[in-house]
Design goal:
The structure holds two protein chains of two kinds.
Chain A lengths: L1 H55 L1 H21 L10 H14 L7 E4 L3 E2 L3 E12 L1 H11 L7 E10 L6 E12 L2 H16 L3
Chain B lengths: L1 H7 L2 H48 L4 H21 L4 H9 L5 E9 L2 E8 L2 H12 L4 E15 L3 E13 L2
Antiparallel strand pairs in B: 1-2, 2-4, 3-4
The chains are: A alpha+beta, B alpha+beta.
């Protein structure tokens, strides 16, 4: 009886072992291929549905594209692309000089532009302005270089003092200009930050 | 019957038979799986070519997704910055529209706080200025910090008050 039980156990053990070996040698590869093909099918199905939806809504999407291009132009004027990692200082200088020229303050304009810095999403650079003239010219000038400017600017400090002895007022401004960092630049900045964090102190 | 089967065959023969059956079963299963793979690959090819065709018809709107992402990223940045942006130019324009009885001698804006020093032709004018400034959407809590007078002023007369006012600016 015991001999028969042992024989049965040995037989079951052999069958299980052979089954496992057969699975790994004969079936595992094809099953993995099948899984991969099914996964690819799911991805393709999603892509197909997306492309199909796009085709069905083509007219609507065309209209959306046109609108988005207009919006994009506007927002690009407000927050222009950075020149690499820097705020384009030439454009900044040109726009401030143009604003001064329009308000007859060009002759007294003193402009200083600082170095660009980067945050997680954008670049910014500080700049300071000193200009003297009549109040009626100075306020429109300030509007032109800040809120009425097409570009995003942030006024940090503004000071108005009487100009002595010639009369009129002197305006001093400390402000920031901003620029959009591209995805590639942001990725490079993040990689740089990670490398610096990894370096032993 | 089973007892007879086990009794009549030696162990190696039984294992050999089981091995053969397992191998045959595994190959049959492999064949079935291979057929399913073939079918799946054919279906994938069919889908891929259908996608190519669909994309060809819709390629003009391909840039839309990138445009939307770029637009949203810029818009978010603009909104964050504008939230903290001082309306200095607008507030100075409002100060310039105040009655002539008010003359500012010094205005300083530090981010969202404005401090102005000036002369007024009377105490009432200063209070009226505060009321007027309180109605502006860019100005919050205009308040008098200092008020001295009356004293003589060349342009504003003998009842001139020197004031110092402070206010918060609303972005």
């Amino acid at each position: 009886m015991l001999k028969r039980i042992l024989k049965g156990i040995a037989l079951i053990g052999a069958i299980v072992t052979l089954g496992v070996i057969a699975f790994f040698l004969i079936l595992e590869g094809p099953l993995e291929d099948l899984d991969a093909a099914e996964e690819r099918h799911i991805q393709l199905r999603e892509q197909y549905l997306l492309a199909y939806r796009n085709l069905v809504n083509l007219d609507l999407l065309r209209q959306q594209l046109t609108e988005m291009k207009k919006l994009q132009q506007t927002v690009r004027r407000i927050l222009p692309d950075a020149d690499g990692m820097e705020v384009g200082w030439q454009e900044l200088e040109d726009s401030i000089r143009a604003a001064a020229a329009k308000t007859r303050l060009e002759s007294s304009l003193e402009l200083s532009i600082g170095n660009s810095k980067q945050t997680e999403f954008y670049a910014y650079c500080p700049f300071s302005i000193r200009v003297s003239g009549e109040f009626r010219d100075v306020v429109p000038f300030l509007q032109r270089i800040s809120t009425a400017s097409e570009q995003l600017r942030m006024l940090k400090h503004v000071s108005l003092r009487p100009r002595l002895p010639s009369g009129g007022i002197t305006l001093s401004v400390e402000a920031y200009a901003f620029a959009h960092l591209s995805d590639e630049t942001l990725a490079a900045l993040r990689a740089k930050a990670q490398n610096q964090a990894k370096k032993p102190r | 019957m089973y007892a007879f089967f086990f009794k009549s065959r030696p162990m190696p023969q039984l294992i050999g038979t089981a091995a053969m059956l397992i191998v045959i079963a595994a190959f049959v299963a492999r064949m079935i799986v291979a057929q399913r793979i073939e079918k799946q690959l054919a279906e994938n090819d069919r889908l891929a070519s259908a996608i190519v065709l669909l994309k060809k018809n819709t390629e003009e709107i391909e840039p839309l997704r990138g445009l939307i992402q770029d637009f949203l990223a810029r818009k978010a940045t603009v909104e964050v910055i504008q939230e903290h942006s001082s309306p200095a130019a607008e507030v100075l324009a409002e100060l310039s529209r105040l009655p002539r009885a008010i003359v500012f001698t010094h205005v300083r804006i530090d981010e969202l706080r404005l401090l102005a020093i000036g002369n007024a032709s009377g105490e009432n004018e200063v209070n009226e200025m505060i009321t007027l400034l309180g109605t502006s959407r860019f100005i919050g809590r205009p308040r008098i910090r200092k008020l001295d007078g009356p004293r003589k002023h060349r342009d504003l007369g003998p009842n001139t008050w020197v004031f110092e006012v402070e206010m918060d600016l609303r972005p």
